[in-house]
Specification:
The structure is a single chain. The protein is 60% helix and 11% strand. It has 7 helices and 6 strands. The strands form 2 sheets. Strands 3-4-6-5 form a 4-stranded antiparallel sheet. It has a two-stranded antiparallel sheet with strand order 1-2.
């Protein structure tokens, strides 16, 4: 058991174990990807945005359902989508949820032939909506970089603790610091790449 405890100790005190740092960076990049996918890029509309919208089936109730669990969101061709609602009594709450979302700025229209279908025209991007999307993309990038800085800070704290406990050779700590900066630089470069690509698509719309 003593050997096991010693082994655990060595694992904890490994200066080259960047798993927590990498996890933090990966989390920040995942959130960024998700945030950017919600923006209207190049006038195209991501149906996931609608699918993730919360719908209150009972008015003034705090309980809500994901729109994607109540209906199917399908591209209809051109600048429009259709929503196929599973149960007719959910049509009104879904219309209210979409109209109530300021971010979306969409007006669903009931289909003349099918009472369970909603047609959603997607307005073309205006200069204002494009500028807003560009600003939101930059902001999402800043948020991701803050996440990476926080992960780096936690790693630095860990290396500092090892230094104070004198459980790791100074040379190893130096190497670990250099490796850490490389991991962080790559994360920051990935953020820039994602944001630049999203902005480029928006500007070309």
């Amino acid at each position: 058991k003593e050997e096991e405890a010693a082994e655990e100790e060595t694992e904890v005190e490994d200066p080259h174990d960047f798993s927590t740092l990498e996890e933090g960076i990966s989390k920040a990049l995942g959130k960024l990807k998700n945030d950017l996918s919600k923006l209207r890029t190049g006038g195209r509309f991501n149906p996931e945005v609608l699918e993730n919208l919360r719908v209150h089936l009972i008015k003034d109730s705090k309980a809500s359902e994901k729109l994607g669990d109540l209906a199917q969101v399908l591209p209809k061709g051109g600048r429009s989508l259709m929503i196929l609602v599973g149960e007719k009594e959910h049509v009104k709450p879904i219309i209210s949820a979409i109209q109530g979302s300021r971010d979306l700025n969409l007006q669903p229209q009931p289909d003349a032939q099918n009472g369970s279908q909603l047609n959603v025209p997607i307005p073309p991007p205006t200069k204002e909506s494009r500028d807003l999307a560009l600003a939101a993309a930059s902001k999402a990038g800043e948020t991701a970089n803050v996440g990476i800085r926080n992960a780096r800070g936690a790693m630095q704290k860990r290396l500092r603790a090892m230094e104070l406990k004198k459980v790791v050779r100074p040379d190893d700590l130096k190497k670990a610091h250099k490796e850490m900066e490389k991991v962080v630089e790559k994360g920051v470069a990935d953020v820039k790449k994602s944001v630049d690509a999203a902005r480029k698509t928006m500007e070309q719309a």
